[in-house]
Design brief:
Blueprint: H1 5-18, E1 24-29, H2 30-43, E2 48-53, H3 60-66, E3 72-75, H4 78-87, E4 93-95, H5 102-110, E5 115-118, H6 121-134, E6 138-145, E7 156-157, E8 167-168, H7 172-181, E9 185-191, E10 195-196, H8 201-222, E11 228-230, H9 248-262, E12 268-273, H10 275-278, E13 282-294, E14 297-302, H11 311-315, E15 322-324, E16 337-346, E17 355-366, E18 370-373, E19 395-399
Parallel strand pairs: 1-19, 2-3, 2-12, 3-4, 4-5, 5-6, 6-8, 6-9, 9-11, 11-12, 14-16
Antiparallel strand pairs: 1-13, 7-10, 13-14, 13-18, 15-18, 16-17
Helix pairs in contact: 2-3, 5-6, 8-9
């Protein structure tokens, strides 16, 4: 992941200088996003495709930057599907996610989704009835909750144990029998998404290898004519140790070797990455409005909080941040400051859970300085409870993709 901090910091300083009140903002660096996504896509072996999971960040400039680079978008609701179709009417779309309504299944058929990922036998049968009424056909993948030996757990597990996600493997024969009797619903393959937040490239390669082995066995056992495995996303971002990120080059090279040795002829591999593509392009900035010492702890209060930037609370970590000095101090009394101290960064909410960083060492932070949180481009603004306490929404702007004369990587 490439970070262009100077450009981001300059834009934040300029916005603060123009603002008549403390700044709170999201900044997205579209050029960094473009470069990172282009490298990821270029590194995929032949026979692999990459879809962007828009649940991570569905802002239109993000999608417009990624659309020319990826094979399509993955959506998980009717609202996401219509958002994509409104702006990208011809881009391939895959529809995943549990709890699909009949109206969403009908919408998927009408909006020509490339593939629909089915979560249960009940959903499969409802899809069949809706498709029959419309006189349409539909390609599907069955999302299977697969139990694997020695599955290395991460901080977020969606399978390999009892969860509401996917079809338990014991129900696969019943699904296949139903599909044989209803040819208008065509099985293209299988979808797996057992975990997220994977930071270990070798463990992720082992997981993909296990998927390939299992599908190969099913293809022979059930005499299946299929052409696709969707291995989901799951590649994480290391918020705790930003300098130690997922080793994409090692994964890329290992994936090529894995597919050479154990790939299934005629069956392509799809990835649907969200967080790993967009997280590093986003920044959340908040200006310090108060600084207080309480029972041996130092709290830095910023404009904003977890109602804007829920990532730290959702992930249970102390989020890294940068301090940008602001020289202006408009008051006649001494400026509150903390030097060579450990601080906790909190927001404006009436709850002790409004905590963005804790026990974080700082050389110096003062009231009116700016705090900038990187890795805020995925599952940040989009998972936050925006209207709690009715505070204003943060400002938002985008650093543009560079022109052709600057576009060489």
């Amino acid at each position: 992941m490439e970070l262009r901090l100077n450009q981001v910091f300059d834009s934040i300083r300029a916005a603060q200088a123009r603002s008549g009140e403390p700044l709170c903002a999201y900044v997205y660096d579209l050029e960094s996003l473009r470069r990172h996504a282009a490298r990821v896509v270029a590194g995929l072996p032949a026979g692999c495709e990459l879809f962007y999971a828009i649940k991570a960040n569905s802002e239109l400039p993000i999608l417009q930057t990624l659309a020319p680079l990826v094979n399509g978008f993955e959506v998980s609701s009717g609202g996401e599907l219509m958002w994509v179709r409104q702006h990208f009417p011809d881009l391939p779309v895959i529809f995943s996610g549990p709890g699909k309504l009949d109206g969403e299944l009908k919408m998927a058929l009408e909006q020509r989704v490339d593939c629909l990922h089915v979560e249960s036998l009940n959903e499969l049968m409802r899809l069949g009835q809706i498709a029959g009424a419309l006189g349409k056909t539909q390609a599907v993948l069955l999302r299977i909750n697969l139990s694997l030996d020695n599955l290395a757990e991460t901080g977020l597990m969606m399978g390999g144990k009892p969860t509401p996600f996917g079809i338990p493997v014991q129900q696969l024969p019943a699904c296949l029998a139903w599909l044989r009797a209803h040819p208008a619903i065509r099985l293209r393959g299988f979808h797996f998404h057992l975990l997220s937040h994977q930071l270990d490239a070798q463990a992720h390669l082992q997981l993909v290898g296990a998927y390939l082995n299992q599908v190969g066995r099913w293809r022979e056992q059930y005499q299946l004519s299929i052409d696709q495995i969707n291995v989901g996303g799951g590649i994480g971002v290391n918020y705790r140790e930003p300098e130690r990120q997922f080793d994409w080059p090692a994964f890329r090279d290992g994936l090529a070797a894995l597919l050479d040795q154990r790939g299934l002829p005629g069956i392509g591999v799809r990835f649907e990455l969200g967080r790993y593509l967009s997280a590093a392009c986003g920044y959340y900035a908040m200006q310090v409005i108060d600084l207080k010492h309480s029972y041996g702890k130092t709290f830095v209060v910023g404009k904003g909080g977890s109602h804007h930037f829920r990532t730290p609370y959702a992930q249970g970590h102390s989020h890294p941040f940068h301090v940008l000095a602001v020289d202006a101090w408009p008051y006649s009394f001494p400026r509150p400051a903390a030097a060579n101290a450990c601080v906790s960064i909190v927001g404006q909410l009436c709850t002790p859970k409004d905590l963005l960083a804790f026990d974080a060492p700082v050389a110096l932070v003062r009231c009116n300085d700016l705090l900038v949180f990187p890795f805020a481009g995925a599952y940040a603004w989009h998972i936050s409870h925006h209207d709690f306490l009715r505070h204003p929404h943060p400002a938002q702007w985008y650093l543009p993709v560079e022109g052709p004369e600057h576009a060489a990587d």
